[in-house]
Amino acid sequence: MTSMLDGIFLIDKEVGMTSRKVDNILGKRYGTHAVGHLGTLDPFATGLLVVAINKGTKLLAYLNDGDKVYEASLLLGEKTSTGDLEGEIIEKKEIPGISQAELDKVLSSFLGKSQQIPPKFSAIKVNGVPMYKAAIQGKEVEIKPREITVYSLEGSVEGGLIHFTAKVSKGTYIRTLGEDIAEKLGTVGHLIALRRTFVGDIDVSRAKKVDDIKEEDILSGIELIDLPKIELSDEEEWKAKNGQKLHLENKEDKVLLMKNNSPVAVYKRKNENTFVPERGLF
Fold it and tell me: Where in the sequence numbering do the catalytic residues fall?
């Protein structure tokens, strides 16, 4: 039976579960293959996973996932092949005495824009092949650095353990950030815990474990889209659903068109008051 549910679920992912597994559980429960998520979480990580179902998958491209907040625990003295506790230990190094003042200084050095080289064990594709598959096969691939932004980074030191909270831009790898922090502290390290608490403005406190999710927990997704919203007349709705241009009084370059509080389409500006379809959402 095909599910009639359309929208967004906010999931608090548990340890040991892949993001795709969450999709599969919800797809099986509600009888659909049209399930997708925003921003993959590693299996060892927990926290906020935004999952779309059926027509909700069309909204994913318009949800605000630019900034994310993570809480992490970094174990010093041991480097692993994956940058987390799931990999093999590949290097050990003594841990120097670290004061809170020294930690604060190191963490502040990461603030702002920088270039980060993603880890080999990641889902980034090179020549169409995910890097983690190439790494498993022992293949060497060229990993290009990407620009990231660290907006805030605070932490505390407890013996050989660093607990930190980071607000970062999309595409930032916290495993790599953890390794870089350890290096600046004069040692090596890997993450033993990672939790995502925010995706854009969405707080994990709004999420539920996948086993606790019920149909009434689904969101339309409209409230998560940061675009001007325009309610259509019957005639305008017909035109939008047939891909016709619309004359709209709006100063923004892109708008979300709705009818009776349901998404119809995203339209973009063609000229002064003429908008044309970018994507249908019905």
Answer: 42
